[in-house]
Write a structure and sequence with these properties.
globular, mainly alpha, 5 helices
C-alpha cells in the first residue's frame, strides 16, 4: 500500500486495508473473521461455552451490528435500519418456526457479509477531507495525525 499525497487519502487507504485484513484478507494477526466462521455449521455456531457467555453466532451478529453502526454514521443514515430487531448483542440462535436453524445461520452470515460490504463502500465513498473532522453530534474528536500539533519529547526511552 503506497502512501497517497494527502494524509486524508492515506487514511482512506489505510482503513480499506485494515478492514480487509480483519475481515477477509490475509493478515498479520492470523485468521480473520470470515475465515474463522467459514465452514462453521449452525450447531457449532450456537454452542455456548458456559452459561452467560456469548456463542460464535452472537459474536458474528454483534460484528454485523457494529459494522452497520459505523456505516450508518459515515453514510448519514438514520438509526433503526438494522435488518434484525435489537442492537449490539442479539440473542442467538433464534427458534424460527418456519425455517431450519441452518437457514437462519446462513441468513445471519449473509447479513454480516452485507454489512461489511456496506461499511467498506462507505469508507471508500467518504470525503477524504472529512476524516480529520468530528462526526455530526459527536462528543468525540478524531485523533490527531502523526506530526500534527506541538511535539512533546518522549520521556520513556533513553
Amino acid at each position: 500500500m503506497a502512501p497517497t499525497k494527502s494524509a486524508s487519502g492515506t487514511t482512506t487507504k489505510l482503513l480499506e486495508e485494515l478492514l480487509a485484513q480483519a475481515f477477509s484478507r490475509r493478515s498479520w494477526h492470523g485468521t480473520n473473521l470470515a475465515g474463522s466462521l467459514r465452514g462453521m455449521d449452525s450447531e457449532l455456531a450456537a454452542w455456548r461455552p458456559a452459561a452467560g457467555r456469548h456463542n460464535a453466532w452472537e459474536i458474528a451478529l454483534h460484528c454485523a451490528y457494529w459494522k452497520y453502526a459505523v456505516w450508518r454514521r459515515l453514510a448519514g443514515e438514520k438509526r433503526g435500519s438494522f435488518p434484525e430487531k435489537g442492537s449490539n448483542w442479539l440473542p442467538r440462535p433464534p427458534v424460527p418456526p418456519d425455517r431450519s436453524l441452518a437457514l437462519a445461520w446462513k441468513k445471519d452470515l449473509r447479513l454480516l457479509h452485507e454489512m461489511h460490504r456496506r461499511l467498506l463502500g462507505a469508507v471508500l465513498d467518504f470525503p477524504a477531507a472529512r476524516w480529520e473532522k468530528a462526526a455530526p453530534a459527536s462528543r468525540l474528536r478524531p485523533p490527531r495525525t502523526a506530526g500534527a500539533g506541538r511535539r512533546r519529547p518522549c520521556r520513556g526511552f533513553r
